[in-house]
Amino acid sequence: MEDTFADLAQHCLSLLDQTGLDNRILIAVSGIPGSGKTTLGTAVHHKINEIWTSAHPSAPRISAFVPMDGFHLTRQKLASMPNAEEAIARRGAPFTFDPDGLLGLIRKLRTPIDSDTKTVYAPSFDHAAKDPVENDIAIYPTDRILIIEGNYLHLDQNPWHQIADLMNELWFVNVQRYVARERIIHRHIQAGIAKDESEAANRADQNDLVNGDYIIKHSLPPTRIIISIDDKNYS
Predict the structure, then answer these.
(1) How far is residue 91's CA from residue 109's CA, in Å, rounded to a whole number?
(2) What is the pTM of this model?
(3) Average pLDDT over residues 141-168
(4) Which of 17, 163, 188, 209 would be a feasible disulfide site paired with 200, CB 3.0-4.6 Å?
């Protein structure tokens, strides 16, 4: 597992070696809910910085991790939608996100880096408050490799496909459906989204896995497929 994270990190650094000093490398890590894309993305991000700082002890970090969770529509916005009841029940589906806001962020990050480049801030998601937190993730001018993670980064539909088009590579984390379901049920109970296993299973089947099927059906071909790290056949 560790070797795989290191290999992916080295691959990202090799991509950086092939680009100009004024450009960033953007990697979109996607997959269905429960695939382990956050685990993979954060691990590769940390490994990139570990390798970089080992070779350049006095240099700042070179990688940032940017999840798309911060582009969830707020609960207030969902409640004001014409289909509010459905929107609240289906939170996590594509129409409950702000893809235009995410596209705007990615375009900023694609702007060539120069001496006037400023720190860019992305929103995060507060799972306790269940809402985004504006300007919570700092992306510094020295952050040259960005690992961007989220369910819908590979969608073939407008405006999502415009986001995919701005990436250097699309990584898809593959997982068996039953494994994803087990993880989602556990996560919903741990996060307090569901009070028990039955309620968590119902939400997984009626929302998360529905979204997962949509992702599989409407995703662009990935640059690489990575087997989920908790699967026995992970390599």
Answers:
(1) 27
(2) 0.93
(3) 97
(4) 188
Sign of CA dihedral 15, 224, 8, 155: positive
Average pLDDT over residues 183-198: 89
Helix axes 37-55, 2-17, angle to 10 degrees: 60
C-alpha angle 92-152-183 in degrees, rounded to nearest 5: 55
| Structure confidence at residue 231 (pLDDT) | 44
Tokens of 13: 């650094």
d(C-alpha 66, C-alpha 145), whole Å: 11
Q: Residue 175: which of 8, 5, 32, 43 has the closest Cα?
A: 32
- Best CA proximity match to 148, nearest among 133, 173, 131, 170: 170
Which helix (DSSP H) or strand (DSSP E) does residue 174 occupy?
strand 169-174
Token readout for 211 is 């979204």
| Alpha-carbon span 234 to 182, nearest angstrom | 18
Q: Which domains does the chain have, with CATH numbers?
A: 2-72+100-227 (3.40.50.300)
Mean pLDDT of 166-182: 96
Q: What's the pLDDT tens digit per position in 52-106?
A: 999 999 999 999 999 999 999 999 999 999 999 999 999 999 999 999 999 999 9
pLDDT value for 191: 80
The tokens describing 62, both together, are 């070179």
How far is the C-alpha of 51 from the C-alpha of 109, rounded, in Å?
A: 23
